[in-house]
Design goal:
This protein has 499 residues and is an alpha/beta fold. 37% of the residues lie in helices and 20% in strands. α12 links the parallel β15 and β16 (403-409). The protein binds adenosine-5'-diphosphate (ADP). Adenosine-5'-diphosphate (ADP) binds at residues 164-166, 191, 193-194, 223-225, 228-229, 232, 244-245, 248, 251-252.
Length: 499
């Protein structure tokens, strides 16, 4: 059975919540309205803490602080190496607080505590270090405009950036946005997701301790349609960098267009295929497929929610996959033996369950799972549907939960066609030892990341972002810096130029 220690929260790791207010211009402050909202422990549905709720007025104040810090403050004017030093300090402080930060994300988002401690938090420190290393290597080019003209480009920070981030990776999302924009010399207002404000406020505190000047990083928790919309429609924010659902991305782009045409980058939803060919090691392939959909309880934009398996191994693959799914341990995310914690909140929990019901009605075969686990909190069994048709809702919509759509295929052509039969294009996985197949598939699938014989292989230096309705603009890599820079061309005549 998938049930284990669900229901009885282990209080041993539950952190004391130190930061609950908005962080603006270097201080923790109450919201203008004095309003607060609850952040919930998804293991129980109980309140962890009340957080100051930012509204339009608070976003305005935060933008003023960021504007002042950009127009008059030291940050954009510092030599890159000086920005780098402070970013390195910030990274060290994160590492010194790893356990507390891991506990904050675990309790706020239902993420596995031990994985946060081993992976999410240390990786965030390294993301800062990666971009710190780039801070003094941002430069334009000298151009040979013509015989009479000398021209060069400057790469200037874009200005005040608005970051709007989701709840599934509260720490990683914070730093894939904040680190490159810091390196570029921008100032920023970040709105964490209303489900997971806790670690973002802690990071604001650490930024101050590290010596990042006041007004450079402002963190304003609040709700999407209120605080988030105030960011995307603000007249004095120069760029907005968003990660979240495609539906919300569309609203953000619309708000940007209707306000000041701020630059927009969107990292949105996915329905990523994992394609397993006959020559695959079945044991390894089943593990990859399970991890691909169950990692972080399926609350992953690149989750391998569609799994296509070639007919020669299909039967054995399906049998092994279901056996393994049944032994997958769902329960308290602080328990080191648990593999899958609760979904982030009631809304997501109910949305996933309604997709499961829909899958049954559409005529897909429920191979395993489909039910909730325990009697409190937001736990769902690993769920696998087979006999999928490409046009079923559960093969088209991003479910964002532990629900796999499994399908048999015959030929490479058929696999390509199914893989691309989606409005999304975030990632894809291919499992084969055949180089020709791997090459053909990599070129044919319209997605921003292709993983061959692996999945979830991320790196600070590997650009990440979508094709099609999965968005545009890259996070990670030196490419991400481009979102926070603009190119200025400087032109001047030389010798007896007619100009
Ligand atoms: P989900 O529906 O899974 O919570 P969203 O894309 O709505 O995903 O949420 C991602 C982030 O976008 C969160 O910080 C959320 O508050 C914010 N958000 C939601 N709606 C809007 C909106 N209309 N304008 C700006 N930001 C929003």
């Amino acid at each position: 059975s998938t049930a284990s220690s669900n229901g009885a929260p282990s209080f041993t790791n539950v952190p004391i919540i130190k930061f609950t207010k908005l962080f603006i211009n270097g201080d923790f402050v109450d919201s203008v309205s004095g309003k607060t909202f609850e952040t919930i422990d998804p293991r129980t549905g109980e309140v962890i803490a009340r957080i100051s709720e930012g509204t339009k007025e608070d976003i305005d104040i935060a933008v003023k602080a960021a504007r002042y810090a950009f127009d008059f403050g030291p940050w954009p004017r510092l030599p890159g190496v000086e920005r780098a030093k402070l970013m390195m300090k910030f990274a060290d402080l994160i590492e010194q607080n790893t356990e507390e930060l891991a506990a904050l994300d675990a309790i706020d988002a239902g993420k596995l505590y031990h994985l946060c401690k081993a992976l999410d938090i240390p990786s965030a420190a390294n993301t800062l270090r990666y971009y710190a290393g780039a801070a003094d290597k941002i430069h334009g080019e000298v151009l040979k405009a013509s015989r009479e003209l000398h021209a060069y480009t400057l790469l200037e920070p874009i200005g005040v950036v608005g970051h709007i981030i989701p709840w599934n990776f509260p720490t990683a999302m914070f730093f894939i946005k904040v680190a490159p924009s810091l390196a570029a010399g921008c100032t920023m207002v970040l709105k964490p997701a209303e489900q997971t404000p806790l670690s973002a406020l802690f990071y604001a505190h650490l930024a101050k301790l590290a010596g990042i000047p006041d007004g450079v990083i402002n963190v304003v928790p609040g709700f999407g349609p209120i605080a988030g919309a105030a960011v995307s429609s603000h007249m004095d924010i120069d760029a907005v960098s968003f990660t979240g659902s495609t539906q919300t991305g569309r609203k953000i782009m619309e708000a940007a267009a209707k306000s000041n045409l701020k630059h927009v980058s969107l990292e949105l939803g996915g329905k990523s295929p994992l394609i397993i060919f006959d020559d695959a090691d079945i044991e390894k392939a089943t593990e990859l497929a399970l991890l691909g959909i169950l990692f972080n309880k399926g609350e992953v934009c690149v989750a391998s929610s569609r799994v296509f398996v070639q007919e020669g191994i299909y039967h054995e693959f399906e049998k092994k996959l279901v056996e393994k799914a049944k032994t997958w341990v769902v329960g308290d995310p602080f328990d080191p033996n648990v593999q899958q914690g609760p979904q982030v909140d009631k809304k997501q929990f109910e949305k996933i369950l309604s997709y499961i019901e829909h899958g049954k009605k559409e005529g897909a075969t429920l191979l395993t799972g489909g039910k909730t686990v325990g009697n409190k909190g937001y736990y769902i069994q690993p769920t696998i549907f087979s006999n999928i048709k490409d046009d079923m809702l559960i093969a088209q919509d991003e479910i964002f939960g532990p629900v796999m759509a499994l399908k048999k295929f015959k030929t490479v052509e058929e696999a390509i066609k199914s893989a691309n039969n989606t409005r999304y294009g975030l990632a894809a996985g291919i499992v084969t030892k055949n180089l020709d197949i791997a090459n053909t598939m990599s070129r044919s699938i319209r997605a921003g990341t292709i993983w061959i014989n692996c999945y979830f292989a991320f790196g600070d230096d590997i650009p990440f972002g979508g094709y099609k309705m999965s968005g545009f603009g890259k996070d990670h890599g030196l490419q991400a810096l481009q979102k926070y820079l603009q190119v200025k061309s400087v032109v001047t005549p030389i010798y007896n130029s007619p100009w």
